[in-house]
Amino acid sequence: MSTGSRAAAKVADPSAVAARPARAGAPLAVLLWSSGLLLLLASVAVAVTIGPARISVPDVWSTVAAHLGFGASDLSPIRDGIIWNLRMPRTLLAAVCGAGLAVCGTVMQSLLRNPLADPFVLGVSSGASTGAVVVVVLGVGGGAVSLSAGAFVRALLSFALVLLLSHILGGSTDRVVLSGVAAMQLFSALTSFVVMTSADAEQTRGVLFWLLGSLSGVGWSEVALCSAVLAVCLVICLAHARTLDAFSFGQDAAAALGVNVARTRIVLLCTTALLTAALVSAAGAIGFVGLVLPHAARALTGSGHRRLLPVTALAGAIFLVWVDTLARTVLDPQEVPVGVVTALIGVPAFVLVLYRTRSTS
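RE: above sequence
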């Protein structure tokens, strides 16, 4: 009997193997979810108060309640505008992006059975970067196409290219990764070529800042769009939680358990690509969130995706809220790209993950 078949036999009886650990971990999962949600709400409220204008947490709650129709706020229009129109959309988008990227990383690592997989392994980020540069520098669309729209469309085209290449090359998980790397290099080269040959100094600086990840200037429309995409994609991923558990034993074991491997892979890859494209088009390329946070969440919850996915989303949201707060305040009035801060934090964290994996293997 093959290794995959033996693994499948071990998990074939869900009442004997899966149900008891799930019941045993349920109280811990509820504790983590409730604690994480409270911590996220507190993080958003406190992060909004941090900045040049002096604002308190009660001011934040008062403004939010007033705009939601619960009472009236006694703050001045300027302070109300700072909270509701500037800081709150930015902080909420940071939470949405952090949650989405972390969820995408979790799904990618399980689906491709590669601990180094992250949301950008499918070439979506580099494709979005090319789309943004084409709109901003070359003026494609004549002003009718925004930077976010151009980035989103190009990201989806990049993912379509990856699917085509991986299908031609055999369709296995390693071919998907290699196709993503090829697309990443191709669109990165195209982006560099357009910037070097057509952009002036001001355009180059603006494009570079966006490519490194930026949440400045975002509004409620970006928050609403990205939140809706995140909600839909998270529901799809949670619906495939048991399937992702089966993939952790390998494709053969998943197939032996009755999983349609090809269909499931396409559905989940398309889901993560759509979510990544939406987030990147709104905030640029923010690395290491989807690479490191899933490993940290697994240390708390284990590998069961029904518990892992919500905890990872909350961890990613809290992490990026504070990273963005640090990025916009540490060198005030100058702003640091969010992707720079996540890399500075993520690289040491990832080295620690690799070291712990090595020491326990």
